[in-house]
Amino acid sequence: MAEPLFDTTDVDRWVGVPLGGGFLKDPVHPNDIRRWAQGMQNPNPLHYDDAFAGESRFGRLVAPQSFSVATDVGHGATPSIQGTVPGSHMIFGGDEWWFFGPRIEPGDRIKQERMLFDYKVTETKFAGPTMFSRGDTTYINDRGEMIAKQRSTSIRYLAEEARKRAQFSEQEDPVWSDEALDDLEEQRLAYYGTHRGHGKLLWKDVADGERLPTRPLGPHTVASFTTEWRSFNMTVWGAVGYWGESTTDQAGWLPEMSRDAARSAVDPARGDGLYRGPSRGHVQPRYAQLIGMPRGYGYGASMGAWVLDYLSNWIGEWGEIIHSRAQYRNPAFTGDATFLNGSVTGKQIDAASGRHLVSVTYEMTNQNGAVMAKGTAEVALPNE
């Protein structure tokens, strides 16, 4: 049997080329930050409660470090989806983040600089010949300060081949008993109780090998995935403008997964992405199965945010994430729960900056122990 053709000819011309794309027309609003915390299931009052935030080191409402991606159009993944590959779809393969200090707050306008960094094609059980492409998005505020850089990995594959191989076959959501749901709720409440308030986690008090608290999420549903989607302002009608060149919308999506530009001028839902477009498989099982998924599945951008919020909640408002690198292995499917666990793997003082750093490894699994993501991070902590 002939191998399926994965033609990257049109991708090559975009490597290393500065890209345009979508941008949000309006500055960050306090409710954008609150909606993000809500959508990412992160009830840290620093990001939604004015009174609590007013007593913090910031003296005002500030966004979590995970919020950078919410200021983009396309989850930070658009630079990794350049060039047309007919009949293809994509899922997230990972994110690497570097943070430079400034925090996002209400009133900020954030712009993005984008570029396709590199790609490779390799054989996978999921879809045969598969492209792993990396794209960079740099987030800059209106004061010219670099906030963060995201290197997103897109897994681009031929949808027909993924359907044939049917690596994921569980089309029915798992059933949770009332007792199991109550237990999961208690685990969530116990995790929320580990939030530090305004207290400091000091570098000297962190032990090598120390385990971070378990963060549970879910069970995930069509409703929770939709709430996540709507926490991105790019999904609001009329919120996005465009500049420069980008071929993400011409990536080779199946007709059923493409936006209808002409009709969306009359009915914006036709270009919404969730109702019609590349993201509809997340909440519509029919289209999930069209691209090789068994049922509704979560967003890579959300998985990345869960990780960053997990780290941020552990270090507290006095700490800062410096770097995180995550590889995504399996999606979050409807009906599944997610558990984040981490541990300290080292401590050091950076010779150049004098910052007190802690290295962490983390792992994301579902209720059956299947690994959804693995990664490493470096965080900075105060020492007094």
Describe the protein's architecture and organization.
The chain has one domain (9-381): Hotdog Thioesterase (Thiol Ester Dehydrase, Chain A). Helix content is 20%, strand content 29%. It is built from 9 helices and 12 strands. It has helices at 9-12, 30-39, 50-54, 159-165, 178-192, 222-230, 261-264, 285-290, 300-315; strands at 18-19, 21-24, 88-99, 110-124, 128-141, 146-158, 215-217, 240-243, 320-328, 338-349, 356-366, 371-381. A 10-stranded antiparallel beta sheet has the order 1-4-5-6-3-9-12-11-10-7. A two-stranded antiparallel ribbon has the order 2-8.
Supply the key terms:
single chain, 29% strand, two-stranded antiparallel sheet, 10-stranded antiparallel β-sheet, alpha+beta, Thiol Ester Dehydrase, Chain A, 12 strands, 384 residues
Q: Low-confidence spans: pLDDT under 50, at least 5 residues?
A: none
Average pLDDT for all residues: 95
Radius of gyration using CA atoms only: 20 Å
Q: Please give the CATH class.
A: Alpha Beta
By CATH, the topology is Thiol Ester Dehydrase, Chain A
